[in-house]
Amino acid sequence: MLVPISNDPRDYSWGSTTLLAALESRTPSGRPEAEVWFGDHPADPSKTPEGRTLDAWLVEHGAKRGRLPFLMKLLAAASPLSIQAHPSKTQAEAGFAREEAAGIPRDAAERTYRDDNHKPELIVALSDEFHAVAGLRDLDATRRLVRSLGPGAAPLADRLERTDASLGGVVEWVLSREARPAVRDVIRATATSSSEEFAAELAVARSMDAQFPGDPGIVVALLMNLVTLRRGEGLFVPAGVLHAYLSGLGVEIMAASDNVVRGGLTPKHIDVDELMTVVDPAPGRPPIVAPRPVAPGIERFEVPVGDFVLDRVQVERAGVRVRVTGPTIALATAGDVTVEGGRSGERAHLRPGAAAFVTDDEDGLLVTGDGELFVAAPGRPDDVDGAHDGLLI
Fold first, then answer.
1. d(CA 339, CA 5)
2. Model confidence, pTM
């Protein structure tokens, strides 16, 4: 079966007032529009044309596999999201059980673990540029950046000089009460310092300070890789990787979870102790993912998780066949496309921002028209060459 699905944008304060409206060729609402969720996550399930939620629709139609293992989103950021990391599956199960035993309501502001699942995620840029900070930067480069800030950053520079591999102790110190005077000095130094090598990083810090004055998360961001994705590039964020999306429009897919452990740049609950149990403290390069062609018209963003597979389908004139091997969501992001179920023959005409849910009893999708479509499906632990084959017809 094939059924159109939709949802209302979530109005988080960091959301853009224009990006989603421009994608969908509609008049802006005037409110922040941050995310549109596509899936059956109980926090905000998609709706069918009859007004049913997707989770209820699945039950009505005899779904045997329970919740979808993934959640797909459109994400539109005009200002930074929180500095955050996501737990591993083992950490999520332990944290969820601990908070359940403590009797903390699942919707409480002070709750960290709202479910027992991990949340690896992948975002693919739809805007010409998508900006983020992700992962801890190479130590030598970070030392150079901090030295460029001058005497005001001396305590941070000294700690970095005494660090040889893990940056966990530095991050924890930056987020501690003890470090607050030093953090304020570092942030002040970014306002007056200049560096040809790190001009973009300093500009980001100044912008963050304008929005979150004096927030320690600004200094944590200075320790992280600044990432600029071009349209069609992806950023993969596995468990433990510190990150914050800064601005831009993207398609995001993740394991079906709402577990976020925050460290700064947010009025929401921050739990530094828990964050430090989750964070991967090793410096490294940001996990940027370029899609790999798997068939004419189909590219795959390959990531080492079994919760989801994400393909980008680009169709012009001739059709593209996409194999369906599990419950699938197809989301249009450019042009004008039609998807047709291989067995049912049911069709959905999709303009940018519109999506359809495809049940796993379809043997494939025929995509026609002229445009771009992202296809999300459950992954497999052994999914290397993948579950979606595609042929031009």
1. 13
2. 0.93
